[in-house]
Amino acid sequence: MSYQKPRTQHDYKDLFWSLLPLVLVCLFIAGVARACAFSADGPTPGQIPSVDAEATLELDARTLGFPVRMPVLGDQWRPNSANKKKTIDGAGGGKVSTIGYISPEGTYMQLTQSDATEDALAREIIGTRYATGTEQIGDRKWVVYAEQGTEPAWITDFGPVRVLIRGAGDNATFTTLATAVGQAQPLPTS
Fold it and tell me: Would you say residue 189 lies in a domain?
């Protein structure tokens, strides 16, 4: 059994030894906080990552077994990501090719191509939203999935392939990407 002094016999040394761990923890937190930098102007944009969209889509065309299209978007559209997930499991599922772009306006847009059904593709990429309308872009009808507070998504059917575009862009940005996809020819599969 350990001995404890009665409270009336505690002195300043006891107070010092009980507060020392608290002071050390506060000094550690202050040191960590000092290493952080805060800006009154808010965050500053960093380097946007880039990927080789052409090489990625050509590889997907050779390995996925369905026609993959590479839209010609111009130099101001910067491909910045490629999704490594290559399948949608479950009923109507299939293989997937996804490339992300930064539009000239600075918004993120995603292009997903798949041999999955429209329902399976929509369920995988945008969740439980319902179709809310259509957009006619050239000779192609795009089914629009839009809900308040979420990024819109458009899906069209190219026969053996469904194409989904989604992102933070406005209607003109969606139209530009949809037009480029509609005009693109499938890449060689070998």
Answer: no
pTM of the prediction? 0.74
pLDDT band at 83 (very low <50, low <70, confident <90, very high): confident
**What CA–CA distance (Å, rounded) separates 98 from 100?**
7
**What amino acid occupies position 111?**
L
Residue with tokens 């899906």: 155
**Helices of type H across 39-106:** 53-64
- The pLDDT tens digits of the residues spanning 41-68 come to 655 566 778 889 999 999 999 999 899 9
Cα 43–chain centre separation: 19
CB 94 within 8 A of CB 114: yes
What is the per-residue pLDDT across 164-185, written as a single tens digit (0 to 9) for each?
999 999 999 999 999 999 999 9
* Structural domain span for residue 135: 53-183
Question: Which residues are paired to 110 by β-bridges?
Answer: 100, 166
Whether residue 67 contacts residue 190, with contact meaning beta carbons closer than 8 Å, is answered with no
**CATH code at position 144:** 3.40.1000
Does residue 27 lie in a domain region? no
d(CA 49, CA 81): 7
| Domain annotation covers residue 163 | yes
Number of domains in the chain: 1
Long-range own/partner contacts, residues 62-65 (CB < 8 A, 24 or more apart): 62/188, 62/189, 62/190, 64/95, 64/96, 64/97, 64/115, 65/95, 65/115, 65/189
